[in-house]
Every structure is written in C-alpha cells, then in structure tokens.
Specification:
Mean pLDDT of chain A: 82
Low-confidence stretches of chain A: 128-133, 219-236, 445-457
Structural class of chain B: alpha/beta
Helix content of chain B: 40-55%
Radius of gyration of chain B: 12 Å
Largest sheet of chain A: 6 strands, mixed
Largest interface: A-B, 25 and 25 residues
Strand content of chain B: 25-35%
Number of helices of chain B: 3
Number of helices of chain A: 23
Shape of chain A: globular
Distance between the termini of chain B: 31 Å
Radius of gyration of chain A: 31 Å
Oligomer: heterodimer
Number of strands of chain A: 23
Largest sheet of chain B: 4 strands, mixed
Strand order of the largest sheet of chain B: 1-2-4-6
Mean pLDDT of chain B: 82
Number of strands of chain B: 6
Low-confidence stretches of chain B: none
Shape of chain B: globular
Helix content of chain A: 40-55%
Distance between the termini of chain A: 48 Å
C-alpha cells in the first residue's frame, strides 16, 4: 500500500472519531463554539487528506459536510438536529469507506450513489429528516386465501393502516391448472409503506399478524447499511498508537540488554583463557540473573504497549446507536462516562461484538417509543450510559438504559413456552434468577421474544463471548425503570489458540503451537515396534501413542485392531515428533487459558483449563508433559 | 344493485361487498371488452379489487371521495392494471 494512503488510513478513523465526538457535544450544547471548531477542523483535515487520492465520492461528501460546518461557524445558519444527523451519517459512511480502503484499496462500487445521497441530505437535511425521524416500515400482506370466508376485507384493513405512505397491489401467481376464476379465493398481495411505528402497525393488523411481514426500511437517503457494524471496527485497532514515553522506556531496556550481552562476551573470553571454574560460575550466575531481570522487564513493557484506553473505544458507540435507533424512530442519547482505564487491546477488540449486541437489545426492546415514555413520566429522549472502571485488577463495563426493563413475569412465561424449565421450577425462581434465564441458549431463538418485548436476542452469545475472555456478565433490571448489564473482565488476557479434540466421550484442548501437524493414518501404515506402535511421517518413523492410554482412561480399544483410519496429532516431545492418536478433531478456538489450580495443578500433563461458551470446563493438555 | 352492467360498461356503485365479487367476475369473464366505471364506488371489497386485477378491464371514472381511495387505492389499481 502506498505510504500516503497507509498514513491516511491510520489518521482517518481518529479524525472521524474526533469529528463525531465534537458533533455529539454540539448536540448537547448548541452554543459550544470550541466543539463546532473541532468538528470543522476534523472534517477539513479529512477532506484535505481525501483530496490527495483520486476518490471523488469521499471527497464530495466530506466537502459538503465541511461547507455546512463552515456556514455554521460564520453564524449564518445554526445546526438543526437533522443537519447534525446528516453530518454524523457522513462520518459513519466515511469510516466504512476507510475500512473498505484498508481491505481493497478502493471504494465500493456504490460509493458514487451513496455519496450523492449524503450530499443531498447535507443540502436538504429536512427532506431526509421527516423520513428519518419517522422511521418507515415496509408491510407485505399476503392475506390467507380463505380470508373472504371469514369476513376479512384486506382492502378495508389497509384503509385503517396508520400513516400510510405507499400502497401497491398485486396477485399471487395464477395457477396453471386452467381452473375457472374463483372470486372467493383471495389471491391479493398487498405491499405498503407506512411511517407508523411497528407497534402501531401490529395493532392495526392484530387479527392477521400471521399474514404480514414488517420490515423496517433503511432510514433517510443515506441508505446506511447497518448489517455488519463489526466489520468496520476490527480495522481501526489493527494499528496501535503508542505513547513515545513507553517506546523510549523500551529502547532504554534494549540498551541495557546489549550491555548485558557484552558482559557475557567477557565471560566467554575468560572461559576460553582457562579461568577458575568456580569464579566463572559465580560470574555466569550473576550475569544470568541480570539477563533474566531485563528480559522480564522487556516482557512487561511489551505487554504494556498492548494496553489501550477504553474510553475512546466506547465513544464509537453513540454513532452506532444513533444509526440503530433511527429506523425505529427512537430518540436515544448515549452517554459515555470518561475514565482513564486501560485494557489489553485483545480484550477491547473482542468486546465490540457483545457490546453492539447489548446496545441493539436496548434499542430494540429496552427503550420504549417516545409516547410510551412520556406516558410513564419519563423524558421522551432515552438515555443509555456506558461506563468503564477498573475494580480489583479487572475491567468493569456497565451498560445501563432507562427503558422499560425486563419483566420477570414475561420471561417466566416465555421460558415455559419454550420448555426451558418445568412450570413449577419457574415459579420457585426468584425474579432475579428468572431474568437471568435470558442467558440460556435457546431462549431467544424465536422471534416472538421481540414481540414480547423480551430482551433475549442473542444474550447467550453475549455471555459466551465474555466468558471466552475469562469474564462474567451480570444483569439487573427494574420493570419500568431500566436495565443494567455489568461485564467484569480481566484487563489483560492472553489468548491461546487450541485444537479441541475428542477421545472417547471426553473432549480436550491441545495448544495449537504444540501441534506440528494433524494427519490421518491408515491402519496399514501403523507398524508394531516392540511393545508400542509407530508410523511413517515425513520419511521418519514416529512413535504412535493413544491419548486414551496417556490420560489413563483405559486402553480397552488399543489392543483391538481398528478398521478405520486414525486421526493423529503430531506433536514435538523432547525434540522428537510423536504421534498422538485421538478419535476426532472437534474444532479450533481462541481461549483465555487459566492455569490449573488446586488438585488439577498436581496432575502431570495438564496445561490449564478454559471455560467454554456453554459453561463447560475444557481441560487443556500439555502433550509434551503427557508423553514424557 | 352496486354492480350494474349497461352498454359495455360495468358500474361499481356505493358499497360493494364480497358477495358482489361473483357478479363482477361473471361479467368480466364474458367475451368482449368491458370498461369499469369506478366513480360511484365508495367502498370496494378486496374481492372486487382482486377481480379487476385478474381480468384487467379498462377502468375509468374520477376517484370518489376519501383520501384512501383517491391517494392510494385507485393509483395502486391503475398502476397494477397499467403494468403490462
């Protein structure tokens, strides 16, 4: 990649973030002159950089945004909410384009149209705004063929649809049987667009809910694709900004390492000249101690380089929430509480998806429509708060909303319907235990959860992701007042790649870096050597051991000849390859490995344990120690 | 009578209920080009709309009163019949 472009791709996402921080500040306080200046500077710099490359769509959109801010700075026109939204949409799109540039070094094919609609929205934000605030929903209504007999009149029903914007009529494909026209079999297909909320629409169609499909339409003209917010995040952390002072500390350590190496050179000379072995041993021991300390410190500072502040990461979410909320017509402010907590970049990167999931749940199910909020005596604008703090060497992330909360009664009912627990057990659960049922896999598979205003969409996935990082999730809620999700995670995590293998009815993890190769060995290729077995691997004879024998779970099957091929992990033990026969390879995982504790620690051949997404503990083997 | 045929023109008038759909379909199924006059049709049952879409006659007549009829139903009908 061209150096200039590479530079732009590092600096671009930061400018996008600065710009949107400033715009959110302006939204809270329209008189905030410094924020207006900040926003202008960010857009101005972005546009200037974009101009260095031949990318008119990017440049045009940024240029239009800069103009809007320029006019606002001169005080000729204020910034309406609509305009702020259009500016934020431009920044979000810019971030997407930057991610695309990172991948392919060019803008996506639809960039010209997307840019044009951004420019239109910036020129006439009110045009897009009515639609944006309303949030449009597409309705596809396929009346039941027998509906006329039940007295339904689909057209009359459409007459009652609130805030209708468009209506289209069609017929189902005529059957080819040539049967005469049956005036009483309904073949109508009705497509419509309405500006009413999904809830209002569901009320209008309450008797035929099984015959309609509601699809929220992309709001505004910017056609913001909300499909995969994940994709554009991973990119921005691919490069890491490091404070100079940290690097200087590291450089100083390297200097000391060089000095220690030179010290060793002197000792090598002394040894060659036949120095007194006892004096030499003492010197070597001292030098070893020095090197050991230095390397320890290098390790520590390098780990420190990976620590990044959490707040800037959290600041990315207000824009995301704005985008999620727009089609639903929800008005939500996201408050990110500033904090100085730093965490390992791996931890932060892997938190994006669970957090985005939780926020989507809040937007979809937690936050009520404005009318409902007002009726409940709450401000129309909902608030979601994101906060991070370090507690006892762990990172605690809190996400709270002031929405309708989770109703344990509904959760119990849903759990019963899904057969997750028998009714009497459900009755015995405390309310707190009941709302935690939403973490169960299978709770949220059905769409009806959203209809219930449940909050279970993918909560089991959230918990699994957090547990993979060695963390925990807790949920508390007061019906009517809101929901709080607390995630507690290690500040640093070293993720180990493992292969999950099965042997008999057991599963084990084997660290990937211990495995040279996984191979399939036919029975005919296995040759007995004395008491054991061996096979040929890359022109070498390699001993073959059965994992079940090594784990002491009986060697019942070993004596019997097997017909099928054996799955074999080739590992390295004492610099020799050794084959480890297993039943099957189940998969690969990145896991946070915990050292074996307590009784387990005394067992040879055990590297540690990890918690799987389903809550089970997986034992991770140290194959080398196992073989030895 | 809310479905009334006269001189090659079918008039839909007033409230046309589901039971009129058969009358309309039978008329439209007869050979010959019918025109359907909609200006008197205040409220047409879905089954009649469906028959119009199925037999694709010419439609004429200013849309009667009502936002739904004027802004949505008749434009949608005209568009669908115009389609092919």
């Amino acid at each position: 990649m061209e150096e200039l472009l590479a530079q732009f791709l590092i600096e671009g996402p930061e400018l996008v973030q600065q710009g949107s921080d400033a715009l959110f500040a302006l939204e809270r306080n329209p008189e905030d002159r410094p924020s207006l200046d900040d926003a202008f500077r960010a857009l101005h710099t972005l546009k200037g950089s974009a101009g260095l490359f031949d990318m008119p769509p990017l440049e045009n959109a940024l240029h239009a945004a800069e103009d809007v801010l320029g006019i606002a700075r001169e005080g000729r026109r204020g910034l309406s909410q609509a305009m702020l939204n259009a500016l934020l949409a431009t920044l979000t799109q810019t971030e997407r384009w930057l991610a695309a540039l990172q991948e392919t070094e060019q803008l996506p094919a639809d960039a010209v149209q997307t840019s044009a609609s951004l420019v239109r929205a910036l020129a006439d934000p009110a045009g897009g705004q009515t639609r944006r605030e309303a949030g449009l929903t597409a309705i596809r209504y396929r009346p039941d063929p027998k509906c006329y007999f039940r007295g339904d009149d689909p057209i009359q029903l459409m007459r009652g649809v609130p805030k209708l914007i468009e209506l289209k009529l069609g017929l189902r494909e005529a059957d080819e049987s040539g049967a005469p026209y049956d005036p009483f079999t309904c073949t109508l297909i009705i497509d419509a667009v309405s500006a009413a909320s999904p809830d209002e629409l569901k009320a209008a169609f309450r008797f035929v809910l099984d015959q309609i499909e509601l699809t929220p339409l992309e709001s505004g003209e910017a056609a913001l694709d909300q499909a995969e917010p994940v994709a554009f995040t991973e990119q921005s952390l691919r490069t890491l900004r490091v404070e100079t002072v940290k690097l200087e500390g590291l450089a100083a350590l390297i200097d000391e390492l060089v000095a220690a190496k030179n010290g060793l050179a002197g000792l090598v000379g002394a040894a060659r000249d036949g120095a007194d072995p006892r004096a030499l041993t003492a010197d070597l021991t001292a030098q070893y101690g020095l090197l050991d300390r230095l390397i320890g410190r290098v390790h520590h500072s390098v780990t420190g380089l990976r620590m990044v502040p959490v707040t800037p990461f959290l600041r990315r979410f207000p824009r995301l929430v704005r985008e999620m909320a727009a089609p639903l017509g929800r008005d939500i402010e996201v408050i990110v509480e500033a904090s100085a907590v730093e965490a390992d970049k791996d931890v932060i990167e892997r938190l994006f998806e669970p957090l985005a999931h939780l926020l989507r749940n809040s937007v979809d199910h937690g936050v009520e429509p404005a009318e409902e909020r007002l009726a409940a005596g709450k401000p129309a604008r909902a608030t979601i708060t994101l906060a991070a703090e370090a507690v006892g060497g762990r990172l605690r992330l809190k996400l709270s909303d002031d929405g309708r909360g989770i109703d344990p009664v509904k959760i119990r009912a849903a759990a019963e319907t899904r057969g997750l627990l028998p009714a009497e057990s459900l009755r015995d659960l405390s309310d707190q235990d009941a709302i935690e049922l939403i973490f169960l896999p299978g709770f949220s598979t059905a769409q009806s959860v959203s209809a219930l205003s449940g909050r279970g969409v993918g909560m089991d996935a959230v918990r699994a992701a957090v547990q993979r990082l060695g963390g925990r999730v807790a949920l508390s809620s007061r019906p009517g007042a809101g929901t709080l999700v607390e995630m507690t995670l290690p500040l640093t995590v070293s993720l180990t790649k493992i292969i999950v293998v099965s042997d008999g009815d057991q599963q084990y993890g084997v660290p990937m870096d211990r495995v040279l190769e996984t191979v399939r060995v036919g029975q005919a290729e296995i040759v007995p050597i004395r008491a054991g077995q061996a096979f040929n691997w890359r022109d070498r004879t390699v001993p073959l051991l059965a994992l079940s024998t090594l784990t002491g779970r009986g060697a019942a099957s070993d004596g019997e000849p097997r017909r099928e091929d054996r799955r074999v992990l080739v590992i390295r033990a004492q610099d020799q390859p050794v084959g480890l026969a297993i039943d099957a390879i189940v998969g690969r995982l990145d896991v946070a490995m915990r050292p074996a504790e307590g009784l387990l620690a005394a067992m040879p051949g055990l590297a540690g344990t990890t918690m799987l997404g389903n809550g089970r503990v997986l034992v991770i083997l140290d194959p080398e120690a196992l073989v030895a | 009578m809310s479905v009334r045929a006269e001189g090659g023109i079918i008039h839909l008038e007033g409230h046309c209920g589901v039971e009129e759909a058969e009358t309309l379909a039978v008329l439209l199924d007869e050979p010959g080009a019918w025109e359907v006059e909609l200006s008197g049709g205040l409220q047409l049952h879905a089954a009649l709309i469906q028959a119009l879409l199925a037999f694709r006659p010419k439609i004429r007549g200013a849309p009667p009163e009502g936002v739904f009829n004027k802004d949505f139903l008749f434009p949608a009908l005209a568009l669908a019949l115009d389609d092919r």
